[in-house]
Structures are given as structure tokens and as C-alpha cells.
User: Fold this.
Amino acid sequence: MDIRGKKLLILGGNRISCEIIKAAKKLGVYVVVTDYLENSPGKKIADESYMISTTDVEGVVNLIKCEQIDGILTGFIDSMLLYYNEISKKAGIPCYGTYEQFQIATDKQKFKRYCRRFDIPVVDEYHIEFPFIRKDLERIEYPVLIKPVDNSGARGIFICNNADELMEKYPVSISFSKTKQVIIERYMISEEVTIFYLIQNGDIVLSSMADRHVKNSQGGTIPLPVAYTFPSKWLIKYQNDTNNKVVEMFKSMGLKNGMVFIQSFIEDSKCIFYEMGFRLTGSLEFKIIEKLNGLNPMEMMINHALTGKMCDQDIKSIINPNYSKFGFNITFLARPGQIDKIDGIEDVKVLDNVIDVVMAYDKGETILDDAQGTLKQVIIRVLGVADTNSEMIDLMDRVHGLIHVYSEDGEDMLLDVLDTTSLRNG
Assistant:
């Protein structure tokens, strides 16, 4: 599919959006960025930029018409999807999802209700009214997880071990919700997986499944991911037990194009879903999926934005989630503070089978205190592939040993990484 010379508008120029900008420019696309920030990272590498807020629907529509832009895309933030859809409709350019689909995908409660209709297990909830009544709080089996229904990036999520903690965290959690709604769920201590689908002209194809490894619970916040490994050891069981139900659910939602990821716990050898995303993943698995499956979801999303088509090939004939190789995504987390020194990046980049090293912060930048317990603590991602499980683990260990991040005081800022012993034994 030749999209060279076409104009793509990116809604928001934050650091991770640079991944879309770089991919589009590599395909020969002219890239425009708009947001309300003068020096957002994306504006520095785009071909052209504007100071129009991404939530100013009429302003962005006028920009699209005046500059004869062919397509728009937003990448990794749930809260932007409804604006993206509204702008696309008013400008008459392609959008991979509908308003109703994005509503389900970005509202954890709506998604779980949809799952129940198709007999797909989801995490149990407690339904209590606010202001809380003590007897309602006492019938809850603790610990529980409280989280906003419509936020992402682990913002506003807390573990509550008793009624007092739940009452304390409720107003904090609800402050992160645009609709002022929270979910109170049973706190799950179990293995996790992330499941990926690609969608083309209504064909819904399981593209990959990863084991999601978490650590570093900090002060009542949820553990954060330190690695993803592909393929998941639960892949075959998922295909046998759950995949067909999920495909039927997505068909019922009317999904036609795009990509989906689902986050799930494993309990009693079953997947227990808790949320989905109908967008590109901030953890950048598309880089791994391209190596393992031969199709790049990022490029497909860019193609659709500009042409209304994901790709020329039939994805059903190409994608096979039962690939023979192995992939990994190491997620380095750092404690709050100012970054003085980052060692080992260039050494890791030249390692065989490392696909990419993606920086979320640079030397001199500060990880703020309010980042604690959220994905804003992610400082570096390293993605790679290997021919065997053993080779993958060896490469992960080498990466772990090479990268170090130091504060102004010379202290190591990195939190604990994955102990790969579990992968060798598993």
C-alpha cells in the first residue's frame, strides 16, 4: 500500500506519540502534530505543527480542511479516543472505531458487562453506594482494588486492606474519573496475561498472547509490569476455552478494523478479564508482533487512517499466534527523583536480537512523586526476540545487567527487575 506523500495529523505530541511519527515518516508520510503545548516532543520531529488543543473539535476539523489532511490518528490515551472519533466524523475522514465501541473499550464497567453477556469470566465487583454505610463496608471481603472506570496508565488505582483505607482512597480514585465513577473489585493475586487481536474488514484474528510479569507494589498501589514474554504459556488453553467467545463478542460490538488488547488474570487455569484497550499499546508490542507474525500493527493503523484500509494482504492468511520464536518486552521502572545518569543504553542497542530501546525519560528529567504506582514510573523499555526460550532468558539477563539509572546523589533509581529463574523453571 503506497501512502507516500499523504498527510497524517497526530492528535497530541507527547513522547510516546513520537513512535507513530517516526513510523509514519519512515513510510514516506508527511506528519503534522497538534496540541496545546509549545515544545511537546512530537512537534520537534514532525514536518509541521500547530497550537490547537486536541479537545478543540471544531478547531482541529478546520485545520484538517484548511491543510488538506488525509487522515488523523491518536495513539495511546483512552481519553482521546472519543474526540478522535468526533473529529473524524465531522471531517469526513477514516476512523477505525465508532463512538459506541470506544465507549465500551474505555469504560471498565461497560466492558465487563459485555463480557458477561458472552459467558466470559471477569473480576468480581462489590456494588455499594456513596456516601458509604459502615455495614456495607463490613460485608466486603478485603483486600479490594478501587479504580476509576474510565482512566488508564494505572492512575487512581489503589489496594485497600480494610474499610478505613477504602473510605480514604475513594475520593482520590474518583478524582481521576471523568464520569466520577469507580469500581471496587476483588483484589487478585495471580498470574497475568495480555491478549492481542488484529481486525480487518470485520475479520477478528488473535495475533499474540503474552505473560505479563508484575512487581514493585508501592504504598498500597498495584504492582507494575516489569516484563512481558511471548508466547504465553496459557496460549493453547486460551484458544481452546475462550478465544471463540471473544471473537463473537467483538463481532457483536461491530468491530471492523483496528487492534485490541485485553488484560486478564489467570485463576484456576482460566482467564479472568478486567479491561480492554481499542488502540495501540503504550507498551509497544507491535514491534514484537511484527517480528513474530510479519505484520506491523502500527503501520496498519497508519494505513487505515490515510486510506480506510488496514493493509492489502488478508491478515487471516498471515497471522498465526502459535509462532515458533520467543519475544520479550522488559519494562524498567524507576523511583521518583531527578535522573542524573543513564548507563548501558548503547551497549544494549547493539546486542543481537534486540529490536529497540525506547526511552520514556532522558538525563536531567524528573520522575515526579505523583508518578509512584503508575506507568509514569516506566523509564525504559527494551524489546527483543530469540529462537529459543533459553536464548530469550539469557538475553534478558544481559539487558538487566547492562542498564543502570542514577540520581543526583549517585543512588540507583531502578526498582526490582524480573527474576528470570521463574521463566527457566516454567
About this structure: The chain has a mean pLDDT of 93. The radius of gyration is 21 Å. The first strand starts at residue 7 and ends at 11.
